[in-house]
């Protein structure tokens, strides 16, 4: 591959990386209120966007898009859920989930490399595994901060049903875009 060809290929990937970060920021603002009985913490489109970007962009570009998103939020742009931003977001209750986004996106890219997005069953499984990484990372951090009881109360119980919906939705969207690999 010539140097010119590599540059031509890198520019569209860099453009998709920026679009991926913006897509995550946009879906992070989609918010479904949760009843106070379930903790009152809203369900957002943030994790769905992370999983889609991770699976739709080739490895490691999906992880790069998530890293850019995290950097923008850390620097103070209101890109996190409900317009959140700043470095304190990483040390608070959502910090583990934010770190889990990056790890999940990298893993999704590796699964894409193995063709998982091209088959509906594997696409659904990839989204399930990515969700498990995000939730697991978030729960570990919450447990460190507040103990396991509070971690489950605030980081799992209000979100498990929404997580299943996002796994199904993300798996189907990614599969529909990747089954004909030339589409993305």
Biggest sheet strand line-up? 1-2
Please tell me how large the radius of gyration is: 16 Å
Q: What is the CATH architecture term?
A: Orthogonal Bundle
Number of helices: 8
Which segments are poorly predicted (pLDDT under 50) over 5 or more consecutive residues?
none
Strand content: under 5%
Shape: globular
Number of domains: 1
Main β-sheet: number of strands, strand sense, barrel status?
A: 2 strands, antiparallel
What is the name of the CATH class? Answer: Mainly Alpha
Oligomeric description of these chains? single chain
What's the rounded overall pLDDT mean?
90
Total E-strand runs? 2
Helix content: 55-70%
Tell me the CATH topology: Arp2/3 complex 21 kDa subunit ARPC3
Order of helices and strands: HEEHHHHHHH
The termini sit apart by 21 Å
Judged by helices, strands and strand pairing, the structural class is: mainly alpha
